[in-house]
């Protein structure tokens, strides 16, 4: 059995497919990533490489026609792939929270912002109570005295107001607004307030700033940065921007066509990238003060209904070798790196037995 790698999250060999009329989309092909409590991991790659599917899988939110077909998602001591829905409901939003790319679309359009946050807090309480009750073999606390319910409601309202203030919003004004009355930046602050109201152990942020203009992006990233440092919340940040990952994360997982092809600390990924795809991504990042033409990676992301055999990057790889289209390279520790960098790569150029 494989050694446990991260004490908070350890995703191993994760496979996800979507059965469509056009054929089966092999969206994740054995994803490997891990993180400890309080760490920030950036998942980067081009559109369509499986970043968001990975995030949704960790929340077990893959819906029909998608399904997880293999692998494990260890969250602390539990494998999320195997848990029943009622236990998952108690984990979602409580221990693992998520913020999305389009915050206004993620909010309920016909409910005031304050009421939505309060409802979220109360749902978490109910799910936790129901799981506790089922463990003890009794009914969920349905006969709870009315007075206690009232006290809990007041405390939920207070938490909502504290959270809105904490994310820099005037709660007196904001709690009574509907989502369409919020700017993009305000809506993302509301989402962050909602996500962090339950003090999650892991926050999944799926492109949280890409729908915002650049000045608001910086404000939201700074806010997120200070809040998660304060609460020691771990963050899984999905982004296509290497610069955002460099600014925010401790570790990076580079994804290509459903696989993590390279994983390691910010230091090794930016100073000593090994995988040809990571090198290509870094060359495509604009540098301040340099006016050279930006380099792009030739070719396009493959169709995952019929992905290339062997290494899925081989049709675009300038270093392709004869074995590259025959077998999938193993995801292995890179040679000679400090253990603290956790540097791993999936490429025949660095395979231990090559
Ligand atoms: Fe390129 Fe082969 Fe490495 Fe894939 S395994 S990245 S094709 S050298």
Please give a handful of descriptors for the protein shown.
354 residues; alpha/beta; Rossmann fold; 8-stranded mixed beta sheet; 4-stranded antiparallel beta sheet; 11 helices; globular; binds iron/sulfur cluster
CATH homologous superfamily title of the domain at 1-85 and 238-276 and 327-354: P-loop containing nucleotide triphosphate hydrolases
The percentage of residues in β strands lies in 15-25%
Tell me, what's the shape?
globular
Strand order of the largest sheet: 6-7-8-3-9-10-12-11
Treating each run of at least 4 consecutive H or I residues as one helix, how many helices?
11
Q: Which sheet architecture does the biggest sheet show?
A: 8 strands, mixed
Name the poorly predicted regions. none
Radius of gyration: 22 Å
Which oligomerization state do the chains in this entry correspond to? Answer: single chain
Averaged pLDDT: 88
Topology summary:
Layout: E1 9-20, E2 23-35, E3 40-44, H1 51-58, E4 66-75, E5 78-79, H2 85-91, E6 96-99, H3 103-106, H4 113-136, H5 146-166, H6 171-174, H7 184-196, E7 202-206, H8 214-231, E8 234-239, H9 242-248, E9 251-256, E10 259-265, H10 266-271, H11 276-283, E11 332-333, E12 344-345
Parallel strand pairs: 3-8, 3-9, 6-7, 7-8
Antiparallel strand pairs: 1-2, 1-4, 4-5, 9-10, 10-12, 11-12
Helix pairs in contact: 2-4, 4-5, 5-7, 7-8
The site of iron/sulfur cluster (SF4) has 14 residues, from loops.
């Amino acid at each position: 059995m494989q050694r446990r790698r991260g004490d908070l999250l350890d995703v191993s060999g994760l496979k996800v497919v979507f059965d469509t009329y056009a054929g089966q989309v092999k969206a994740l092909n054995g994803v490997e990533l891990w993180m400890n409590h309080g760490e920030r991991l950036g998942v980067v790659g081009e559109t369509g490489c499986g970043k968001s599917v990975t995030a949704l899988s960790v929340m077990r939110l893959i819906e029909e026609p998608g399904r997880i077909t293999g692998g494990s998602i260890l969250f602390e001591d539990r494998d999320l792939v195997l848990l029943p829905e009622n236990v998952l409901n108690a984990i979602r939003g409580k221990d693992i929270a998520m913020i999305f790319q389009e915050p206004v679309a993620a909010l309920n359009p016909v409910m005031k912002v304050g009421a939505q946050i309060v409802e979220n807090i109360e749902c978490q309480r109910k799910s936790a109570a129901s799981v506790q009750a089922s463990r003890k073999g009794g009914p969920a606390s349905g006969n709870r005295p009315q007075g206690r319910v009232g006290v809990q409601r007041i405390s939920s309202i207070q938490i909502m107001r504290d959270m809105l203030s904490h994310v820099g919003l005037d709660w007196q004004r904001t709690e009574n607004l509907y989502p369409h009355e919020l700017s993009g930046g305000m809506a993302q602050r509301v989402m962050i307030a909602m996500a962090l109201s339950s003090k999650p152990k892991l926050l999944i942020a799926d492109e949280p700033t890409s729908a915002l203009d650049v000045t608001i992006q910086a404000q939201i990233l700074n806010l997120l940065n200070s809040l998660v440092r304060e609460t020691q919340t771990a963050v899984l940040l999905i982004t296509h921007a290497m610069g955002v990952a460099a600014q925010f994360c401790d570790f990076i997982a580079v994804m290509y066509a459903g696989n993590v092809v390279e994983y390691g600390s910010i230091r090794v990924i930016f100073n000593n990238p090994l995988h040809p795809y990571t090198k290509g991504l870094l060359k495509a990042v604009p540098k301040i003060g340099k006016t050279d033409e930006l380099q792009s990676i030739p070719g396009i992301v493959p169709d995952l209904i019929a992905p290339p055999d062997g290494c899925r990057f081989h049709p675009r790889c300038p270093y392709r070798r004869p074995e590259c289209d025959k077998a999938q390279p193993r995801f292995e520790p890179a040679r000679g790196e400090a253990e603290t960098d956790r540097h791993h790569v999936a490429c025949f150029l660095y395979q231990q037995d090559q």
